[in-house]
Amino acid sequence: MSGPLIEARGITRVIDGKPPTTLVADIDFAMTPGEFVAITGPSGSGKSSLLYLLGLLDTPTKGEVLVNGVATCGLNEEARASMRLSQLGFVFQFHFLLPEFSAMENVMLPMRALGGRSEAQMQKRAFEILESLGLADHAFKRPDQMSGGQRQRVAIARSLANDPLVILADEPTGNLDTHSSAQVLAIMRGIVDSSRESDRKAIVIVTHDLDLAAKADRRVHIVDGKIAATPE
Amino acid sequence: MNLTFSIALTHVRARVRQTIVGIVGVATGVGFSVMMAALMEGSQNDFITQLVDALPHISVTDQRREPPRQPSEDAYDAAEIRGLSTPVTRPGIKNPYAIIASIEAWGAGAVAPSVQSKAVLRFAGRDTAASVIGVDPRLEIYVSKLGTQIISGSLDDLYKTSNAIILGDGLARKIGARVGNSVALVGGVGRTVSANVVALSHSGVNQIDESQSYTLIKTAQILAGQTGLVNEIRIKTPNAMDAREIAMRVEAETGYKALSWLEANEDLMSALQIRNFIMYAVVSAILLVASFGTYNIISTITHEKTRDIAIMKSIGLPAKLVRRIFVVEGLVIGVLGVLIGWALGLAMSWGMAQVEFKSPFMDATRLPILYAPLHYAIAGGVALLASAVAGYFPARKAASLMPVDIIRGAS
Prior knowledge:
The complex is a heterodimer of chains A (232) and B (411). By secondary structure, chain A is of the alpha/beta class. Chain A contains seven helices and ten strands. In chain A, the strands form two sheets. Chain A has a six-stranded mixed beta sheet, sandwiched between helices. A four-stranded antiparallel beta sheet of chain A has the order 2-1-4-5, covered by helices on one side. In chain A, β4 (62-67) and β5 form a beta hairpin. Chain B has two domains: 3-52 and 268-410, no CATH class; 71-263, no CATH class. In chain B, α2 (16-54) crosses α13. Chain B has 15 helices and twelve strands. In chain B, β2 and β3 (126-135) form a beta hairpin. Classes of the chains: A alpha/beta (232), B alpha+beta (411). The A-B interface holds A 48, 52, 57-59, 77-78, 81-86, 88, 90, 92-94, 96-101, 105, 109-110, 112-114, 158, 170 and B 3, 6-7, 10-11, 13-15, 307-308, 310-321, 402-404, 407-408, 410-411.
């Protein structure tokens, strides 16, 4: 695959109000397979808003977002949801796991929604992903029985469930201690580095942790909703 | 298991306290609706039954709706008639047994002749006015409940002696007579008949039991001084509610006034219509309040899951699947609540049926309860609908939001 996995062409997002608020303005962005991109910027600069637009969680007021070459702005919500389910994975600052479900069940949720696998296959895959993230012993625990780092790793496992092209992470280490942050970062780096050549994944991560950003392949700095020169 | 059911059941199982509150809310609404409907409709049916039992379904009497036309009215265009006198004795129904045969022929129902007369009952120096109804015991049992209301003897005991009489137990008590005593009956034309008390009747309505007595038709005819007199034909229709239509046909065919129990109690039936309206209004209000309760509880549960809805949508679960999950959750709570509510309603209805009331005018009675499957179906159906709607609308609202709006709010 040679084209960009996600491409934003002049996207702007304005929230209606008096006065209207511009979250991101006229941004061009592309990420190619195998890339680990960090979006940085001060609080309120629009970095999370950009991530939500790239991840089809929000729709730009102007411009176009292409996922794997497909223009998405004209798609209805069901089609966008289907694209999120099959091609994108999300990790949020707050783990956003379903609290009544075990780690296994949370990881299996996207697989069950997508279909195409038997229950046994889904269980096997969910357990393998959890095991690869060092969570084999916690597979049947609910989120409230796990630590913050463990929950975030389960969220990463869930984002990998349907073998997505791109994983979008919004401050995934924002609530974690140094050790857990390092662990999560290593896992993410590993996901990109270990993906097969024919099926290279990409990760885009929003962070204001400059140490974390420094470990990315590329850094995009946002100020006032616009891409700015990356500070040294 | 299907993903929708799997998520819905996990939610229901995991939030035990909320689920129990939801189920109890639905069950209470359904239970009280069922109990109130059983009580209201039971009491109405009981009221109608008492009305129906107190009178024959149709009473054909020797009266006419309109006074008979005078020959002069037919002969001239205008006639003024003055000083018409009514006969002293009742005319009676002409050819009563031919009329009975004709009514029976087209299947109006069970038919029996009777003679209605008044008399003064005299015993041990006490006089009291009483209705004396001449009946044919072999036919009477098909048109009234008299056969089942006899105490201390039987209806057939009227055949035991030549002038046998059955007294209402209140009437017997009033004059101090017992079975085996001989009482004197003084008829309207002054004729006195000595009659033997062979049995007592008890209808449960004091007004009837203190004033009515029963003899053979022949004895009542002697008392009225009119041999061969039959002044009432009683009809019991297969369905009491058809009495009005059948009475109209009987009246059209015979020319005699045929009064159905519905017409005789028209004022009460009008009151019953108002009562019906009140009953349905009360039961509907209970159902409505219960539905709001159900809606409130289940929609609160759904609202609390707004963040979960955003999570599911951000992962890519379709909005319709998310909505379905909460409808199923509402229905699971609704179904469990309805089942428990039915049991609760049944138990409360049974409990109400055990409450006994005593009245100076009636026998001791229990609250009349109607166990009607329709009540259970309506209460259950409304509760299930409220549960499904309560799951659907909040979930629809949450699912229609862009997930990012909720995620931003949550973070």
